[in-house]
Amino acid sequence: xxxxxxxxxxxxxxxxxxxxxxxxxxxxxxxxxxxxxxxxxxxxxxxxxxxxxxxxxxxxxxxxxxxxxxxxxxxxxxxxxxxxxxxxxxxxxxxxxxxxxxxxxxxxxxxxxxxxxxxxxxxxxxxxxxxxxxxxxxxxxxxxxxxxxxxxxxxxxxxxxxxxxxxxxxxxxxxxxxxxxxxxxxxxxxxxxxxxxxxxxxxxxxxxxxxxxxx
Length: 215
Known about the structure:
The protein has 3 helices and 14 strands. It has 215 residues and is α+β, with helices and mostly antiparallel strands. Strands 9-5-6-7-11-3-2-13 form an 8-stranded antiparallel beta sheet. It is elongated. The chain starts with 11 loop residues before the first helix and ends with a strand. 38% of the residues are buried.
C-alpha cells in the first residue's frame, strides 16, 4: 500500500514559504505582520494532513468505501457514464471544503484500467457541470466483479489534480492514490446492482465510510 507521511510532501513548499516569510517579518521586528504568514503556514499544515486509516478500512469485496472526506451533495441513479464504463450508473458526488482532508482513496481493490487528466476552467466545485468544465483527473478501477470510475474535480481555489498512481497499477481498498489542492469535489460512478448507503447531506470520510454495497 502507498505509504504517505502525516503531512503530504505536496504541502511543503506552501508551508516552508509562509514560515520563511513569518521568520523574516519577525527578524525585521514587524511582529504584527508576522502573525499573518504564521497563521497561513499553520493552515497549510492542517490542509495537507494525511491521517492514517489503513487499519480501519471496512472489509469485504462487496463493500465500497468513500473516495474522499467531505459532504455528499448529490446521489443520482441512471446517470449514463460515457468516458469509461459506457452504461447507466449510480453517481455519488462529494464536496470537499477547504477544511476537509484532501487525500483521495480507492473505493475498492482493483487495477487501474483507465486514467485521464483534463485541464479546464476553475468554477466552484459545488456548481452543476463542473465535471465537464473544470480541471479533472479520472481513474477507472476494475475489481473482481465490477468496474467503477472515480473523478477528482478541481474547484475555484484548486489549481492542480495530483495522482500518485498510474495506468496498470493495482490499488487496495482505501489506498491513497491522489489529491486535489484547495477545495474540490469527487464523483463516484457505480454501474449495476448496488445498495447506496449514503444520502445527500451526509458527512463521509475517505476509506472509512461505506457508500455502497455491490449486489
